[in-house]
Amino acid sequence: MTGQEIRRTLQREFVRTLRKPFVDAVKQYRLVQPGDTVAVCISGGKDSMLLALLMQDLQRTVGFSLRFLAMDPGYTPEGRARLEDNAAKLGLPLEIFDTNVLRVAGNHAAGHPCFLCAKMRRGHLYTEAQKRGCNKIALGHHYDDAVETVLMGLIYGGQVQAMLPRLAAKNYAGMELIRPLYHVRERNVQAWADFCGLDFASCDCPAKQLEGDTKRAAVKALIASLAAENPQIEANILNAVKNVDTGKLLGWRDENGRHSFLDRLEK
Asked: Rounded to an integer, what is the distance from CA 116 to the centroid of its chain?
């Protein structure tokens, strides 16, 4: 399938399962505005490549600029070549920059490198995007990532929090992070990749060989088992962080510090 044919699938076979939920998220959360310059962060996987095509499609109706930013954190030569080949096939003008993120994360957090790796990647992407005049970076996190994050925070972090579809950068003035695939299901992204015969790069990270043992993999399996009995499980998990009853929380924290339900009783 040619690059042009792959793009057409987003207007035909996958318009309802991919393009529509993408557009819905952009509109609901006001993710892209006229005049924005957005760096689409390309990892080489199916999610970020799809995001790049959908963002290009959005330019037909919204006046904004795009840069396609790819960080090589230390890929194997084969992984780097696959990234470049897929981008060329899809007609994406990648701007690739090199880092040593995988090596550093592997050396300093060999057992659990994911947190350090993600933090370092984010910093590099903000910096490179800002150099290019961008005011936003777009990541390929989807609906399933958002659901899993809620449960991971609850089970492993002891906190209630969401993966937000849009947030301001703390250390990069004027920058925002957006997640336009927020309403897109992972299974539909995979169905698109399979339909188009695309072979995307997998992560070369030190933890890849332990993927089946990671916390996210465990949570993904748990959600799948629950959803097999109740199809509303995923929606319920995400809705839980949209319908928080602050009057029934034992405690919470905000920009003013930590608070307890007792504070309200003992005023």
From this structure: 16
